[in-house]
Amino acid sequence: MEELKYRGKKREGRHRDTWDPFQLNPVGAEKESKRRCFQLAQYLVAVIVGIAVLTSAVVAKGSLLVLSTLSSPTSMRSPKERQFYMLMLVFCLVCPNVLVFFKSLWRCTFKSFVQPNMKTMSFVCAIECLVSFGTSVLVLVVMPQFDVLTNLFISGGVCIMSAILQIVFRLQKEKWKILFPICSLILTVAGYCLLGIDYHVRVSLFVDRQSADCFIYVGIGIFSSLLISLCWWENPLQATNRMQDTLSELDGFRDFVFVISSILRIIVIGGVYLLYNVFIQKSIVWSDFNLQKHDWELLQIGLVLFFLQAFCSAACHWFGVVACKIHAVRMSFALPVCCTGPVVLLLGLVLFLTQAQELDGAAHNSITEFCESLVYLSHKNTTPVVLLEITRSICRTSLNSHYLQWPFSMLALEGVCMWSGFVACTYYVWKIKVQRIERTSQLFVRRLYESAFIDLSLLLNTKMKVPRARNQESHDEIQNCVIYLCATMWHETYDEMLKILTSMFRLDRYRGDPKEEHKDCFDFECHIYVDDAFMTDDDTGKRLVNSYVDDLIHVVIEVYRVFTNKEPDDVSIIEAPYGGRLMFVMPEGNMLYVHLKDKSLIRNKKRWSQIMYLYYLLGWKGYIVKNPQKIPRQNNPCRASLISLDGESFLLPQYDNDNKRKFISDDNTYILALDGDTDFQPKAVILLVDRLRMYDNVGAACGRIHPTGMGPMVWYQKFEYAVGHWLQKTAEHVFGSVLCSPGCFSLFRGSALMDDNVLKRYTTTATRASEYVQYDQGEDRWLCTLLLQQGWRVEYNAASDAYTNSPQEFKEFYNQRRRWGPSTLANTLDLLHSGSETVKRNSSISRLYILYQMFTVGSSILGPASVTLMIAGAFQFVFKIAGTLSIIIASIPPVFYIIVCFVAKPNNQIVIAGIMSVLYAFLMTASLFSIIGDMVIQGTFLTPTGLFLVSMAIMYMVTAILHPEEFGMIIYGLMYFICIPSGYLLLTIYSLVNMHIVSWGTRESNKGGGEAKKNHNILCDRNCRLCCWDMKIQITQETDNLLMQQITHQNTQQVPSLPITSQEITPQPAAQLEPQDKLETTKAAVGEDKKHPINKLKMNEARGEDSAFSESDDSVEKRSLSLSSSDEDDDDVLDDDDDFMTSDLGGTPEFSVSDWVEPVKEEFLKKLTYANMKRNLQEQIRYTLRNKNQSELCEELVLMLTDTLHGQLSEVGPEDVLTNSQLEEIQYALTEQARRILKTSRMERLEKRVKRAIEKTLTAPQVQKLDEGEQDFWNKLLERYLKPISDTKAHQEEVTKELKSLRNKAVFLYFIINVLWVVATFFLQAIGNDVISIKIPKYYPNGNESGEYLKVEPLSLMFLLSFAVLLFVQFLAMLYHRIYTLIHVVSYRSTEKDYKENDDNDDDDGFTLENHIANGLVITSDDL
């Protein structure tokens, strides 16, 4: 209710000034706010992870202590038991090395192998052997000799070497913090001293008959602790200037080093075990390893303790990494790990005090009697073994002294010293700063963890992010980056434009003022590239912008009003060699450019728009930032329209990012590719930036694309997209690299696009048939293929959501997929063909991944046959037909449709496909219920078909549950299921047979002239409805020849005067590329419904341009003229294209390019009407004086200046545009009034700021020219790469012939493979299940065997199992990906921007030219 009142109040304010106060309010324009549920979820996840770290560390540490106690020579276990427990200890030490060995071997084999430097590798392996020797000696030799409390405390000494190195290298930012490592060293040495004193007291007091040889083990223990402390030698050194070359070199071949060192460590561990137990103690009896049935308890205890220790230490390491990545370092990492030792001690004491009563037969009079009585319990079967041995071990301490028990405090003090020294040594962990999704290699120095000391290992291994090497490139500080948002538009509707503009303005609000720093450290520009933006006015012959551009201008103004409650301030109109450009300064000061492409000057369509902006943003802008003298200078820098909204912002905002980019590498320059209807939130962009920022080898990243719209086709696509992203994209991301980053929402790294054989290759003009299919039908997939072949990785982020319109009509959907299908296959085959070379270059793509892609390609190729056999099974289920006959019947419709696709026109093919899809849907529905009925009759679902169906349903349900925000997609699963024949059989046939048609297929025709053109030759036009399908039936005359029209009288009957005739007979100038004119448009588009209130006649005129190409709007770019007239539905249209191209060879009279400028400028001059001016002035003053301490003055100024404006314009209408003389008078009156108010309020220092706000309110849009350098760049770019293509008739015919030949080969190959599969299944059915079949025993759901057998054909079972394995692998990948997506989302939520009121007290009255790097240099307006 409050929101309704707020909107009503704002509307009333507008209504006082104009009779048209109504405005749009696009969804998502409101400020984003942190959702309370997400904050709670974030804290909940942090708490859960912290508990997991603590629990797993306590269990791992406790298990190791129990094993060492059980294997102790002083324990009450038999030699056989002690021998087995010692072996479990060995396995605990070996386990982490085995895991690292397999992981490193996998990376060396399938990822990348770098030849190691033998000297460095020898040095590292020597240290690893020493560490392994120290660990083995301490755990296998020393700890069994000590009691459990001493074992718990002694491990704290492994931090001693780290403390020494911190002191030596002085790694502290503040000098006083050197006290931490000094205290750590003192406390650790004191702990060792107390250890020696404690054992001296025990020997002196004869505690538990302690022998004097314990001092040897104390010395060995201290020495082995020193050796173990060498394990983390890298951590202090990587934080200094020393050995940087060695460490950097080591990073390159670290995987191979780990392979060798892990083997060496295992050998050392085994060697120490055998040397001590076989040759020194001679305690191993090999026959005792042959355990008997009565040894079950021994085996159970040993294996449980081993698995607990191995699993929990690995889990603790993983949860520790997660805790750091979700920005919960203190609460979920440092605190639990530091508390591990005290918690183990506390837990042990609690168990000792509470469970001692359970030891039946033990004396409880005193501690000494209690300990002596334990000996008699060792043979009782009812006594808990673990509890007994732990209690017995505690009795070996000074507590069991007959003389003095106070020496036990020495042991307690030793524990306090060791624990305090360890915490002091790792103090830096508490202050560590972590970026979002920080790489594990940036969090921890070593991949290997020490399972015996998991808590100390985690903290000592955490990277010291203290002063780095001066010349070292570091990831510790987040890198600044520049993002160029590049949207390509092609005939978008008003609502679609509204989505993309709202998204851009949201990002502007999120980023804030570019001159201020942002915690995400990014700057951005928005670029919109409008294809087909111009038309020729038939009355005047002038070249003007069409109605799509009119729509776009209105959208920009409307969105600006919604976000700021005023008109755009800084608008520049620029003529350009490719057409024109509109330049806006967005509300917060970021830039928006709209590039208007004239297809008579530059190539049309998306790939060429991408080449255009890539060369402009990466090529030209990259060149000028490397040559600062090339950045244009402005003679009058004080021009008001070049100052940002707040008045004191940066100078020349359009060059601000160019200045910043001087300090930003190409690696941190990103291109966000967008479609003209994409809707996204700032979060989605930042999450993609994270992927590229943190992983240097990632060349592109894409988000989760959600199709929008209504109707059955959209429902089908919703589930299709969901499954594709849930399973296929995640599997590609986890096992290798994503193959396609969709052009509607993808972030590309500048240096990746600029790499050899990427952007340069991307400019290749298609000349051969295969190139038309691969290059132009799926340009985003081809670009990703080029990146992958050069060694870059493409990633998928499931939390980065973007929404885009999907085809809502059956025809549009089929035409879209007709492009995508062959392109996907062509690019995948290209990647597989270059697989061996790609594997060498790309560390993300392995031979196994190539094998996985080959399997998926094979599955897709066999898709039609599989669906046919599935339909045959449906016939068999539903109609009880024999297997062979059902296959024959099921094969008839595909064969029929193949023939239809070869002989009928595309539109008729789609109509027939629609009818067949409905029939197939009925059959699939019947089949579903038949399968369910069959399971009921059989009394079990444990049949191959039933099991597959049930498991798929469960898997998709679990997958949907793991995507809670998308769970509703599961509802569309039934629609997807019944449309499988249409999507995988009919669509595949349609795509293959029409492969030679290389037109775009969607948004092909303008809404006006295309229909008018078709109407010339329509003999019959009927709209029919069949079930839920709307069908249009037309009978047309197949010629545009003027003589034939005159003979049949069609020319005079339908249109009194055909405007096209003059074009067809007389050569037309090249500048007039639109063959349609206003008469056709007006006639065809009378009933057109527009959502935006602009002049309909004007819109119809504009959209009438170039509508003759209903299949290929662009004769210049689209060489879809390669389609022959006999294979395309709109033959008359294509014939027009041919005539049109030949007619362009005539003369080229000059047209004034600036004709379009004035109408555009008039649109923006509407800001100078009284109603708009009043609102603009109020908002300008409020924004200029937005600080809280200026609120009273701000409101007084708003009130008084509004009154002044009202007095000056009392006789002017609300919609009248003011003249220059009126503007000068108003500016003088407002400035004088503001000066008086500020003088009265004693705030004269704000005078310049208020004056600039008034000037901005009264500033008209500027008309500019490109500077000479950029003009020359565009001329040469157009000449070299983007010159409009004009093919000869002979070339078109040759390409048509090649495309048909390619089509025929592809169809033949597909047909043969699928027919072979169907025929093989047919003959297996014909031979009979009794001869060739696999017998599977039939089970009931309760597990009982029925005694019957199910007979399944080998081929069907093999394919079913293969498909099931593929889905299961994808499901596992999805689980893995979900976890890391959750980590990323939680880490983002913890650093999310809060929109707060500005408390800034900066009253600087001069605007500045600021160097953002050298903060000391500031140029004020006085200097200028």
Key terms for this structure?
1424 residues, two-stranded antiparallel sheet, 53 helices, 19 strands, 57% helix
Question: Can you describe what's shown?
Answer:
The protein is an alpha/beta fold. Helices cover 57% and strands 8% of the residues. Strand 16 (1334-1339) and strand 17 form a beta hairpin. Helix 5 packs parallel to helix 17 (408-425) and helix 43 (1078-1084) packs across helix 44 (1096-1103). Residues 467-475, 634-651, 1007-1016, 1038-1151 and 1399-1424 have low confidence and may be disordered.
Task: Summarize the structure in short.
The chain has 1424 residues and is α/β, with parallel strands linked by helices. It contains 53 helices and 19 strands. The protein is globular.
Report the end-to-end length measured between terminal Cα atoms: 52 Å
Helix amount: 55-70%
| Shape designation | globular
Structural class: alpha/beta
Mean pLDDT: 79
Overall strand count: 19
Oligomerization category of the chains in this entry = single chain
**Uncertain stretches of 5 or more adjacent residues:** 467-475, 634-651, 1007-1016, 1038-1151, 1399-1424
What layout of secondary structure does this protein have?
Elements: H1 2-15, H2 36-70, H3 79-111, H4 118-142, H5 148-154, H6 160-169, H7 179-204, H8 214-229, H9 234-238, H10 244-252, H11 254-280, H12 296-325, H13 329-338, H14 340-355, H15 367-373, H16 385-394, H17 408-425, H18 440-443, H19 454-461, E1 481-489, H20 494-511, E2 522-530, E3 534-536, E4 543-545, H21 547-564, E5 571-576, E6 579-585, E7 591-597, H22 606-626, H23 656-661, E8 669-675, E9 679-680, H24 682-694, E10 698-708, H25 712-735, E11 745-749, H26 750-753, H27 759-762, H28 769-776, H29 779-789, E12 793-805, H30 810-833, H31 835-841, H32 847-861, H33 863-879, H34 883-903, H35 906-938, H36 944-961, H37 973-978, H38 980-993, H39 1009-1015, E13 1018-1026, E14 1029-1036, H40 1042-1048, H41 1050-1054, H42 1060-1065, H43 1078-1084, H44 1096-1103, H45 1131-1143, H46 1157-1164, H47 1170-1184, H48 1191-1208, H49 1220-1240, H50 1247-1257, E15 1262-1265, H51 1268-1282, H52 1289-1327, E16 1334-1339, E17 1345-1352, H53 1354-1389, E18 1409-1410, E19 1418-1419
Parallel strand pairs: 1-2, 1-8, 2-7, 5-15, 10-12
Antiparallel strand pairs: 3-4, 5-6, 6-7, 8-11, 9-12, 10-11, 13-14, 16-17, 18-19
